[in-house]
Specification:
The complex is a heterodimer.
Chain A (H helix, E strand, L loop, with lengths): L6 E8 L6 H4 L19 H4 L31 E4 L11 H9 L3 E4 L4 H9 L3 E4 L2 H13 L4 E5 L4 E4 L5 E3 L4 H9 L3 H6 L2 H14 L6
Chain B lengths: L4 H7 L2 E4 L4 E5 L2 E4 L5 H9 L10 E4 L16 H17 L3 E3 L9 H7 L8 E4 L13 E4 L2 H10 L1 E5 L2 E8 L8 H12 L7 E6 L1 H5 L2 H9 L8 E3 L4 H7 L8 H11 L12 E6 L6 E3 L7 E3 L13 H14 L14 E4 L7 H11 L10 E4 L4 H9 L2 H8 L2 E2 L20 E4 L14 E4 L2 H10 L12
Parallel strand pairs in B: 3-4, 3-6, 4-5, 6-7, 9-10, 9-12, 10-11, 15-16, 15-18, 16-17, 18-19
Antiparallel strand pairs in B: 1-2, 2-8, 13-14
Helix pairs in contact in B: 2-5, 6-8, 12-14, 12-15
The complex binds iron/sulfur cluster.
Iron/sulfur cluster binds next to loops of chain B.
């Protein structure tokens, strides 16, 4: 996993509540064998006017001009702003994979689906919970200032606006913060315990040798 | 300290415990199928890691494989790619056993594990599939995991887990003829709800559980996940040991004797404390049928579709209304008046030899009702299929107008071509009746194999106890 350094990026506002994992990446794209490449079909049903099928290049598709992510001013956005209960629905990890693959580094919302929240952290995508009022204020700013950027300062657990210097604090589990800051994935962390695992395995083999025969 | 079966299984696999109680748990058996493993192998490759212990891996292709025309291979190119990728990954990295598409021992991952003796008492078992709880019938700690966790287990042989709480479900008495493990599972979920087991590991015990075959026990543990519990389990007894004896990967000779003496300790200590206890009276149980879009929306076969008018809680009322609308049912309809279009006997819940035998017994000498367009039996594995054919059961089904298919997940989740069309109503022995689960707009009623078979020949649901009296 990449280290989550101080991140500065363009913000895209998606003004909807309860965006579920099927909306983030529709079911027909789940038969893929990769964890990369989902970005082109992120929010597929909203981003395009035609119905998306796996394997069809997006150059042959008809983009929905009214969908916010298609507006020229939000191209290259890396921070997504959304409403409550973002990422509700299934446990599939394709949703955070798609967001990260599209280029998002962080999602800001008043609340998140629980499994999505955890899956995001495991995949280097930072879900940031701010209060409804703070999210409102950000929506206001994004719409008001083309090119509106935010600075996500994970170390100090705050989001800072570039233009007017507003700052919002957020909470994060200390262990998850440590992992993100240092680019440690769960596997990397567990592998720091190699000796303990090996020792356990030896003893386990003595206790239940038939498991290893 | 007195321990539950779950405590024992947990304690014997803890590599280390963090201050906040999170455990690093060693995994003995890693079951792999084509849908949730490709990204895990890809991640492993990208990070230049190797699997920790390939001998722990048992793999098969089941979710996407067709159940007809095997000579044509897999026609859907995307399904084929998933299956080919599994072939490739197993070839590259290795496994203890692999039952690929077309192998005579291929089948649903949760059917072949126990059948091969690849899941054993005392093991920790994981698979990237929520119904891994099935294997707990053999007194192992078995649960489903996500793709990141599949990769984690591949790379480290361990899983990071918080310990669950203990729940005991006690089923006493004696089941009547025509009443089965599936009915226990559905009645339990009706009682405690689909979130009733959230945060718990469920142990099933009591005289009814002791009287069940291992197949029946698997049906019950399989459905633990639908009750919200990630794991279900049953203590070792002579039934367990007899079931395992002589299976391909079960220990042999001295090791067998050693194993059996250890396995006999795999039961909750008398007096061990459970955080929650639930009891069911097996003697009072009758065949169950779901009427809605969640397994907890269930009634006995003598019951009626509920009337939302009688529900005071507004959110529950709305739930009932939505479900009835989706299911195309009127309030107060008798379940025995509900006509069906299709019948599916299969899935990791009910596709074992015992399930197929009881369904065949119901169907024998009868014909599928004219209003039923398709009735199919999809055995859980190649070995189940062969066994059934040796017993002549396939002929009984075919003579009655059923289709006799090749093994796989099939219409349980409709990832291959077996699916319901919008509005079609199905009596299904699978485990989930969610909206669209068996095909967009499809209407699923969960029942036991005996009930599915009797619905097939009757055209509507019918109390199978009228047909099976012994
Ligand atoms: S039969 Fe159904 S529930 Fe079982 S593993 Fe297959 S898809 Fe999952």
């Amino acid at each position: 996993m990449e280290k989550f350094a101080l991140h500065k990026g363009l913000v895209a506002p998606l003004d909807r509540a309860n965006i579920d994992t099927d909306a983030i990446i529709p079911k027909q794209f789940l038969k893929s064998i990769k964890r990369s490449g989902f970005g082109v079909n992120l929010f597929d049903a909203w981003r395009f006017l035609d119905v998306g099928q796996p394997g069809v290049s997006i150059n042959q598709r008809r983009p929905n001009p009214n969908f916010i992510l298609n507006e020229p001013r939000y191209q290259g956005a890396s921070i997504l702003l959304a409403r409550k209960n973002f990422g509700c629905g299934s446990s599939r990890e394709h949703a955070p994979w798609a967001l990260a693959d599209y280029g998002f580094k962080a999602v800001i919302a008043p609340s998140f689906g629980e499994i999505f929240f955890n899956n995001s952290l495991k995949n280097g995508l930072l879900p940031i919970v701010l209060s409804g009022i703070e999210v409102d204020a950000l929506f206001h700013d994004v719409l008001g200032f083309p090119g509106f950027q935010l600075i996500v300062d994970l170390e100090n657990q705050r989001v800072v606006t570039e233009t007017n210097g507003k700052s919002f604090n957020f909470q994060i589990d200390p262990f998850r913060k440590h992992c993100l800051l240092n680019g440690l994935d769960d596997i990397g962390l567990t592998l720091e315990r190699v000796d303990e695992i090996k020792k356990f395995e030896e003893q386990h083999k003595l206790n239940q040798p038939w498991l290893f025969s | 300290m007195l321990k539950t079966l779950y405590d024992k299984l947990w304690d014997s696999h803890v590599v280390r415990t963090e201050d906040d109680g999170t455990g690093l748990i060693y995994i003995d058996r890693h079951l792999i199928h084509e849908v949730t493993s490709p990204q895990a192998y890809e991640g492993l490759k990208l990070a230049k890691r190797r699997p920790w212990r390939v001998e722990s891996i048992v793999a098969t292709a089941d979710h996407n494989t067709p159940t007809t025309d095997w000579d044509k291979g897999i026609e859907d190119p995307i399904s084929k790619l998933q299956v080919d990728t599994l072939d490739q990954n197993i070839k590259e990295y290795g496994s203890k056993a692999y039952f690929p598409f077309l192998d005579s021992r291929q089948g649903i991952v949760h059917v072949i594990g126990p059948e091969q003796g690849a899941t054993l008492p005392g093991m920790t078992v994981v698979c990237g599939d929520s119904h891994t709880s099935t294997h707990g019938a053999l007194a192992c700690l078995a649960h489903g995991i996500g793709t990141s966790e599949v990769e984690h287990v591949l790379a480290t042989q361990c899983l990071v887990q918080k310990k669950m709480k203990n729940m005991l479900v006690r089923v006493e008495g004696q089941l009547g003829a025509g009443v089965s493990a599936k009915d226990i599972a559905l009645a339990l979920i009706g009682k405690i709800g689909t979130a009733g087991g959230t945060g718990y590991a469920i142990e099933f015990a009591g005289s009814v559980i002791e009287s069940l075959s291992v197949e029946g026990r698997m049906t019950l543990c399989n459905m633990a996940i639908e009750a919200g519990a990630r794991a279900g389990m049953i203590a070792v007894d002579q039934v367990t040991i007899d079931y395992l004896h002589g299976r391909t990967f079960a220990p042999k000779g001295d090791l067998w004797d050693q194993a059996v003496s250890y396995w006999r300790s795999l039961r909750s200590d008398p007096g061990a404390i459970f955080d929650l206890m639930v009891t069911l009276n097996g003697s009072e149980l009758i065949p169950q049928v779901t009427w809605g879009t969640s397994p907890e929306m269930v009634v006995g076969i003598d019951g009626r579709v509920p009337d939302p008018e009688h529900e005071k809680d507004p959110s529950k009322r709305e739930g009932i209304e939505q479900a009835l609308k989706y299911m195309g049912l009127e309030p107060n309809t008798l379940l025995t008046e509900v006509e069906i279009d299709k019948v599916f006997i299969g899935s990791c819940t009910n596709s074992r030899i015992e399930d197929i035998r009881i369904a065949a017994k119901v169907v024998a000498g009868k014909r599928v009702a004219p209003n039923v367009q398709l009735a199919m039996v999809v055995p859980g594995s190649g070995l189940v299929k062969t066994q059934a054919e040796q017993e002549g059961l396939d002929k009984i089904f075919i003579a009655a107008g059923f289709e006799w298919r090749q093994p796989g997940c099939s219409m349980c989740l409709a990832m291959n071509n077996d699916r319901l069309e919008a509005g079609e109503r199905c009596a299904s022995t699978s485990n989930r009746n969610f909206e669209g689960r068996q095909g967009a707009g499809g209407r699923t009623h969960l029942v036991s194999p005996a009930m599915a078979a009797s619905a097939a020949v009757n055209g509507t649901f019918v109390d199978v106890r009228e047909i099976i009296t012994d």
